[in-house]
Amino acid sequence: MVLQRLLDFDPNYRDNFQGNDIQGMGVYTEGSDEKIGTVNDILVDDEGHFRYLVVDLGFWIFGKQVLLPVGRSRIDYNTNRAYAIGMTREQAEDLPEFDEGRMLDYDYEERVRGVYRNPKYSNTSVGTGVGTSPNYSRDNYTYDKEPSLYGLNEQNHQTLKLYEERLIANKIRQKTGEVAIGKHVESETARVSVPVEREHVVIERVTPENAGRTVPASEATFREGEVARLEIHEETADVRKEAFVREEVRVSKVVEQDTVEAQKTIRREELDVNSPNLPIEER
Question: How far is CA 111 from CA 85, 96, 116, 252, 255, in A?
């Protein structure tokens, strides 16, 4: 039976306790509700079963650590406390000191168990019976032989779970339609006015003011075939088509938010305590 620290056995053990951690809990006596120390560690067997709480008895005996069998404890997560059932200061003084470097062998555990079995602690004696010798040995001992030390008994470790229903609101996204946006070509006849110019020749015969004047022979040169040339131009309309961007169309979606009210009947369990004329304290 090899024991090891809970953290070494399962580094993620807190996930199994919904984030609760036994380590660091204050340890109190039952009845007097006196704080005696703190849970420093938990020792488990090779199957992960809780066997001991390592308790630092700093409030009773400074610097002393002892082993508290899990069957002699009660964990209260509501108050974040661990209770040592029936523990007395005299018993704590008689328990062998626990050293983290110690080898936890059968002989050491028997010393621990011997204190819890001792008949002089009449209110805490457990095991095979007050004043009797255990009927097991090193070779055949198992923890289940002493459920009062290592069992999670119903009296001190029972848990009653109260359930309630809650409304869980989710959203379902579904398609309600589709908008198709495209384009098509429309044709029309466009007209444009273009002013054009056309040249023509005007021949005008006029009588000079000095008509009849005698000119010198050197001036009056008679040359046959003399020609005057004028270029005549005409404009025509040159109309072509060019494409350009007329406008842009931007397509986007806008999300509108709304609140939808839903109503359902939910159930919740409440605790009923039937204890006529008995003192009950709720914490």
Answer: 19, 7, 9, 80, 73
